[in-house]
# Entry
Amino acid sequence: MKAIDEEKGVLRWGGLAGILGGIIFILVFVVVIAFVGPEPAGPEGEIMRFPDIRVGRTVEDGLYLTVLILWVAHFLALYRALREANLAPALFGSVLGIVGLGVLAAGALPHVATAPISALYHAPGATPEDQAALVLVWQATEGIFDALFGVGLLLVPVGFVALGVAMLGTPIFGKRFGGVSVALGVVGVVAASVLLVDPLSPSAFVGVLALIVFHLVVGWKLYGLSRAPREFRT
# Structure
């Protein structure tokens, strides 16, 4: 009985982590709209307005990192729920998902790197030549973070596809959740692939939306399994 309770506890906390992460990610968009605003047009725009939006960016990045941490717990719970019925895709999907989240987490706090550049740009003694050079440094720094985001956004939905395949062979998830997971994974992979080819493409939003929907839907399913009165078996 204790083992069953502990097993359900893993599913409960993992499911709640997936749901909470999805909700917080939606809150990230609210913070961006309310306190950060649209991206400026010119290459100097971001560094020029950074002091005015620094608090908003810091909150945005902190919430985003929190989301990624919560989703790691969700992937671990999914692995536990699926491993006995379909070990290979459950293992590969969870590992790929967690590795992808790790890559995203590596680029989750860009303000830590860009804040010193902004401080130098706005320093009283900065010359126009210094500022022009700092704009280039700013753009190069953001390029690194964008590359990490693109790779992470590609790896995580590949994990969705593998986990969806595992769900298809598991009665407690079945074809409905398995099919939705595979579909969201394919959408995410296509969106990330387009982003890697064309970094200016708006497909990143589609990829992020696929991540949010997956964790909300599957997280709710995991939480429901933890509350089922019958004994949980995969």
Q: What stands out?
A: The chain has one domain: 2-227.
